[in-house]
Amino acid sequence: MRDSNGPAARALMVAALALLGAAACSVPEPRGIAFENVTVVDAAHGARPDQRVLVVDDRIVSVAPMASAAGADEAPPAQVVDGRGRFLVPGLWDMHVHFLYDEALTEHMAGLFLEYGITSVRDTGGDMARLAALRARLQDGAEPAPRIFVSGPLLDGRFVVYDGADPGRPPLGTDVATPASAAARVAALDEAGADFIKIYELVMPNVFQALADEARARNLPIAAHVPLMMTADEAGPRVDSMEHLRNVELACAGSWAELLAARQQRITAFEEGRGYDLRRSLHADQRVPAIEAYDESRCATVLAALGDTVQVPTLRLNTLASTRPFDRDDWDEALAGLPEPVAGRWREEAAAIRDGETDPTFADWSLFLVGLMHEHGVPIGAGTDTPIGLAVPGYSLHTELELLVRSGLTPREALHAATVMPASFFAMEDELGTVSEGKLADLVLLEADPLEDIANTRRIAGVMAAGRWLPRD
Ligand SMILES: [Zn+2]
Question: Domain check: are 85 and 154 in the same one?
Answer without folding.
Answer: no
